Amino acid sequence: VPVSPFSLIIFGGAGDLSRRKLFPTLFNAFSSGEFPQTFSIAAYGRQELDDGQFRSLVRQSIEEECPDHRADDLDSFLSRLYFLYGHFEKAEGYDRLATLIESFPDAEQLLYYLAVPEASYETIINQIAASSLPTEAGRVKIIIEKPFGKDLSGARRLNILVASAFREEQIFRMDHYLGKETVQNISFFRFANGIFEPIWNRNGIDSVQITVGEDIGIGHRGGFYERTGAIRDIFQNHLLQLLALVAMEPPTDFHAERVRDEKIKVLRSLRPVSVDEVADCSVVGQYAAGSIAGKKVPGYREEDRVDSASVVPTFFAAKVYIDSWRWAGVPFYLRTGKRFPVKGTEIILQFKQPPLKLFRDDCNPLEPSFLRIVIQPEEMIDLHIGVKYPEAANMLYPVDLRFSYRETFGTRAIPPYRRLILDAMRGDASLFVRQDDVEASWSFTDPFVSYWESRDSIPFYPAGTWGPGEAHDLIEREGRHWIEPL
Ligand code: BG6
After folding, report:
1. 176 is in an annotated binding site
2. Is the ipTM of this complex over 0.95?
3. Which of 3, 429, 441, 442 could serve as a FRET partner for 228 with CA atoms 20 to 30 Å apart?
4. b/e per residue, 10-35, with b = 16+ CB within 10 A?
5. Binding residue per annotation — 338?
6. What digits encode the pLDDT tens for the residues 334-358?
7. Residue nearest to atom 13 of ligand 1 (CA)
C-alpha cells in the first residue's frame, strides 16, 4: 500500500533519540522509495536552531548512521526538513506550528510524533488540543512511544487525555518490539504450520521462558532509568507483548482489531499477583561492576546521573501463569536484564518429556527438547532435539534444526522503527498497542513495581553475568533452569 502525501511533526525532533534513530530511519525509508513525492517533516523543540542549522545536524547523523547513502538522496531529503523553536508548555509555539503546517504543500495526512520523555506527553497533547493545530479523524494521526504512562492510573489518565483530542483509530502507541520481523514471525510460525499448534498448549508444553537481555548498561540514560527501572522499561511492554503473541489464540484473520482482541484476552487472563505475593514469584537485581567480553565496565550506581545508593532494578525475573484453558498450569518465566554477557532476546517453549526414559543420558545429560525463537541479535528459530550418538549403543546427543533469517533471505530484517512508522502512515494499526492492552498490562505490572519500589536494598550481580543468584533459585526450585541465549 503506497504511503499518501504527508506532513510529519516531530516533537523533540532535535533530541538525541530523533537524531540517532528517527531521522536515519526516515531517510532510509525515503531512499528506498517508500515515501511519496510530496512530504514535509517539521521538528519542534527547545533548541534555538534555524532550518539550516537543523538540516546540518540531521545531515551529520545520517552520514554517521547510513555511510552508504547517495548524496543527492540526502540533499533531497534534507530539503523537506524544517525546524521550529518552541517550548512544549507555551501555547504560542503551537500556533506558529499550525501556520508552518499550512505553508506545506498539500498533504493527505498529518502525523504528530512524540519523541520526548514520557513526562512531557500530557503537556504536549493538552497544547495540541487547545491550539489551532488540526486533529480531525481521517487525516490526522498521533504516534506515541512507550512507556505509555508510569503506572495504571497514569496510563488511564493519559488514555483519557489522548481520547479527548483523538479517536482510538488515530492513536498509534508504539512498542518497537512489535515491529521486529521475528516477533511478527511468531504468528506466522504458529498459525501457518499445522505441526506445532496441536502441542502449543498445556498438553505439549512444560514451560515457557522469555528473555530480553542486553549486554549494554544504561549508558547516558541515567536520569530516565532512575525514574523507570527494568520492570517499567521492559517487563510491562516488550516482555508482556511477547508473552501475548506466544500465548494468544488464533485470530479469525490478521486484521488489526482481531489480533489485538486475542492479545488482550491473554493479558486479562494473567493470574493477578498481589503485592504480598510478589516476592514469591519475582526477583530484582542491579548490575555491579564487572567485565563484558574482556572489558571492565562500571556498576549501575557509578553511572552518570544515577544515585550512588540507588536501588533501581536493572534486572527483573518473574514466574507468571495464564489462567486460560490452553495454558492452565504452565509456568511462564520472564526475565530481562542489562549487562548480561551477551545481547539476546529469545523465547523458549520447553516440551514435555516423553512418558518413559528409555535412553541413557548420563554421559551427555540431555535437556528436554525445546523450540527456541531468537528475536535478536540473529533472527532464528531452532528446534532443539536429541539424536542418537554415533556408534554408542544407547546415548543421546543434542542438536538444533535451524532456520536462520539471514541465511535464508540473504539479508537482515527491516529495522522495526521503519516498519512501524510506515505502517502508521498507511493507517495500519496491527503492530501498535491498543488502549485496553496498555491498561491490562499496567494493571498486572503495578503490584510488582509497588512492592520492589518499597524495598531499600537490592541484590547485585556482576556485569557480565545472567543476573543475581535469586533468579536461578526462582526457576531451579521447580526442577528447571534458565536456557541462556545463544
Ligand atoms: C527500549 C528500552 O524500549 O528498548 C531500552 O527503553 C532498551 O532500555 C531497548 O535498551 C532495547 O531495544 P532493542 O531493540 O535493542 O532490544
Report:
1. yes
2. yes
3. 429
4. bbbbbbeebbebbbbbbbbbbbeebb
5. yes
6. 999 999 999 999 999 999 988 877 7
7. 177
